[in-house]
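Bug: token stream looks shifted between consecutive jobs. Job 1:
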Amino acid sequence: MKKLLKNTEWTVLIVSLLLFAIGAVALFSATQSTEYGEFKKQIQWFLISMPFLFLAYSIDYNVIARFSTVIYIIMVGLLIGVLFTKPINGATSWFQIGDVGIQPSELAKVVVVLFISFLISKLQVRGRKEINRFWKLLTAFIFMAIPIFLIIKQPDYGTAMAYVFAMVFILFISGIDKKYIIFTIVLMAVLVPVVYNKLPQHALKRIEVFLNPESDPRGDGYNIIQSKLAIGAGQLVGMGIFQGNQTQLGFLHPKTTDFIFSVIGEEFGFIATAAILVLYVVLITKIVYIAKTAKDNIGSYIAVGIGGIFFFHMLENIGMTIGLLPITGIPLPFVSYGGSSLVTNFICIGLLLNISSRRQKSYL
């Protein structure tokens, strides 16, 4: 136990708690008009997350991975089942249980990363280069494509991209041949125009608004314009808690999830937003270090897959709030409001602590 505690990369836990604390303060300010309803729920979800984090840390990740096949099948079943639920904001992404909404696509992230990591490690039983056998690589792609396809059907393109990033990060360190990487890049370049023409109208509208928000300032371009106004108004130190015009007067929407970064920028300024970016850089860097120093391939794959998900969420959420990327409804990890997302993120942190603790020696 002493060895496990000594080897554990506690920095990832400290950073995640700091990000949660910043998000909690922002939620406290953003929800004063609703008697702090979402803030209170977020605290409850945080407390619910802690036992899951402890379990993910305390049980050997190789043991957890052995059960990932069964859990993967269950999650695929849930992703199919959610397609038959009543749409919320145009998407069938939630199981509504009383006042609580459960989003399977969020919970499935960690399951898919575990299963794909376990699968690739088994496909490489005779050596890392075995992943370059066409049928083995195709097998990995098929099992990743199933949840991605089901999530696109909801439709939730942003979350689907998080899965893609996880897969890319895992394959990149798995020993995949460069020819497959080059082929994929060329294929994507060819397919982008085709996929673009096949996108549904609402997705095309988001891209058009991203390119020119002022073309529809009172419609689809409204949210991004208000977001940039909020962040710009914060300047260096912000307007102060409860003092943001866009935040408190209801111009930002949804301010507790998609645009929580805008709330922080307006009320706490550039210093706070820069601190968030630094914390994410530290988190991603430590995750890469954990992947590099893991005792086995499966540990490296799980860590880097989690890193891919966090990296995409950070990049997309911050990018869309400042107008550099299209709006996709992706939450900011540990900061945005959301129960399913928060539980999943802390399970991921537990797994990272788990992998780091079981290294052969202390790297601190």
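Job 2, same session, no restart:
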Amino acid sequence: MQYRTVSNGTTSFDVSTLCLGAMNFGTRTDEQTSRAVLDRFVEAGGTFIDTANNYSVWSGGHGRDSEDLLGRWMRERRNRDDLRIATKLGAAQKDPALPLSTTPPTNYEGLSAEVVRRQAPESARHLGVDHIDVLYGHVDDLDTDLAETVDAFGELQRDGLIGIAGISNVATWRVVEAREEAKRQGVAPYGFVQQQYSYLHPAPKYGRNNFVTPGLLDYAASTGTPERPPLAITVYSPLHQGGIARLDKPLWGGVDHPTSHVRRALLHEVAADIGATANQVALAWLLGAEVPVIPVIGASSVAQLDEALAAADLVLDADVRARLDAEPPVVR
């Protein structure tokens, strides 16, 4: 396992360069399997674990199932101090009687000061911790004044409840503005952004603000100075929920277009040439990029996790990266 230091200019700590996503733990992935995956991740040197306060309500859970399972597991393993735990708030159900949706009406709680102040201590309680290492706003809230959200996260940091704040599913300009607002208020800025990202890129579409963009990568690369504190990017669905490994699996979320199919086939060709799997090459491509990101890997079995873990130490030669980064042929 490899590690990197993350910081918001005030708080700093090390995390493993692969983050374990716990979204389905305790729901789609049963408790015994979830614990086995967690144990194997830690055994391999993993330290960074990601969850949220609304996982997986759409699968019959109550929303905090994974937080609760992580809390039980850490208590029994007595390993809290060895880990960095991230969770999210703001996208739980505003009205419990209505479903969540990724399109309006979303039924998200949002990122008002009231929600942030109420939900953060609840996550800490369910996780069984006295502080949360990373707390994200799960989905950017355009209906709440940005200054109010920034102040609420700043308050949690001043109180010691959270280490580093972050934001997810957000336009790059909003990240920049939120960090400038933090500077105006004299509070620690967002130190993390979590977006969707993989070797497969979505077709451009106005309003599609949940993917990593070249502009966000460029902005992150410019940080790390006293005037512009560091910003780390974590990425979800880096293996496109099985869409990388399986050539027959449909792609989703704006990624299902001819160029993606060409790039996916190339991943498989490169993997065969270097004796790795397509998933491992896809993760290594992210980890070794000019602006490296932290992939959040999901695993529903120890075998799936072991495949992903092998990517942590896989370094792609320059010629391999050039082959992967070359402009794909025109598809007609």
